[in-house]
Amino acid sequence: MSKKVLTTKQGGNGIIIRCSDGTEYEGDILVGADGAHSAVRQNLYAELKSQNKLFPSDDAALPFNTICLVGQTRPLTTEEFPLLEKEECQFVRIVGNDKPFAWSTFTTMQGRICYSVVQFLNEESSKLHDSFRNSEWGPEAAGVMCDEVRHFPVISGGDKITTLGDLIDLTPKEYISKVMLEEKVFKTWYGGRTVLMGDACHKLSPAGGAGAGNALQDAVVLANYIHALPLHPVVEEIEAAFEAYKTDRIEWCEKAYATSKMLQSVVDKGIKPMIVRFMMRNMPEFMKRRAAEQMYSSRPQVAFLPLDETPASVKPTHQRSLNLKAPVEENDEVPAKAI
Ligand SMILES: Cc1cc2nc3c(=O)[nH]c(=O)nc-3n(C[C@H](O)[C@H](O)[C@H](O)COP(=O)(O)OP(=O)(O)OC[C@H]3O[C@@H](n4cnc5c(N)ncnc54)[C@H](O)[C@@H]3O)c2cc1C
C-alpha cells in the first residue's frame, strides 16, 4: 500500500493510525508487524511509559554488537567462480585472524554468490556506528564498509586469488546492504488494542536463521486468538487474547534468541568461540538430534484452515491455540476489524 505509519492513537472504542501522506485508518485492533524499528512499538511504548506501565528494560535502545554487510552477485560463470561447478551449495566461512571480522560465501542454484561480512564491535566502535542506526539501508551506507573489506580473501575454488572486492564489483549496487545485527526480546508485546509480532517484539541475530520463521509463527498463533475473539470484543477480552498469544510464543522466541546469540558468537575470536566450534564439529548424533528437536518442535498451525498432516521427523509440540473456535455469527454480524 506504500503507506508509512507515523502515529497511533487508541481508546476504548477503537484505534486510529495516521500515515505520512496524511491519511487515517480506524480499526478495532492494530497489529504492529513493522520490523525492528517498529513505529507501532514506539507509539505503544510512549503511551505505556506515560502510564508507568512499560517494563524498564523495554525503554532502552536496541542493543547491538555486530554490523553486517550482505550482498548477492549477478549470476556468474564457473570460470569466474569455479566452486559453482559443484551441484551442492558450497558454504565457506572464514574467521579473521588479526581483525574483528568473519565472512561467509555460499553458492546458489542461479549461479549467484551470496556473501556476508560480520564486524564485531567493541564499546568504542559501537558508539561510532550508533549514528547509522536510524539511517536507511542501502548502497550508500554500505559503501564505506565495502572499501574496508575489499582485500579480504575468499575461496572461489580456482587458482586465481579472489577477494571480497571481486565479488563486490560483480554485484549490482542495489543488491548490497549494510545492517545492524541488533538482538533483543522485548517484554512488552501488547497494550490495549495494539499488539506486536515478528521483529517488532523480538529481534534475533540472523546467525540462527530463525527470525523470519518466528515472525510467521507469531502470525499463525495471533491469527488463531484474534479469530476466536467475540464479535464485538471489549478491551479486556482483546488484552486477554494478546496475553495468551504472548504466553504461547515468548518462550520459543527466547530460546531462538539464545541459540542465535550462541551461533553469532561462534564466528568471533577467542578461546570460548574456539571451544564452541570444536564442540559443534564433534557433537554426537544424539545431541544434534536433541538440538534439532528444540529448534523445530514449535510448528503452530492455523486453527481455521485445513491442517497440514505431512509427517515430520521432529514431532510438533502441543499447540494451545489449535483448539480455539470462532464465535458463532448471528444475523451476519461483522467481526472485529484488524489493521
Ligand atoms: C542479513 C540478514 C539475514 C537474515 N537471514 C535470515 C534467515 O536466514 N532466516 C530467517 O528466518 N531470518 C533471517 N533474517 C531475519 C528476517 O529477515 C526477519 O526476522 C524477518 O524479516 C522479520 O519479519 P517481520 O515481518 O517481523 O519484519 P520485516 O521483514 O522487517 O517487515 C517489516 C515491514 O514493515 C514495513 N514498515 C516498517 N516501518 C513501517 C511504518 N512506519 N509504516 C508502514 N510500514 C512499515 C517495512 O517496510 C517492512 O516491509 C535475516 C535478517 C538479516 C538482517
TrEMBL record:
Signal peptide: none annotated. It holds the Pfam family FAD_binding_3. Residues 174-226 form the FAD-binding domain. GO terms for molecular function: FAD binding; monooxygenase activity. Keywords: FAD, Flavoprotein, Oxidoreductase. Gene3D superfamilies: FAD/NAD(P)-binding domain. Belongs to the paxM FAD-dependent monooxygenase family. This is FAD/NAD(P)-binding domain-containing protein. It comes from Linnemannia elongata AG-77. The lineage of its organism: Eukaryota, Fungi, Fungi incertae sedis, Mucoromycota, Mortierellomycotina.
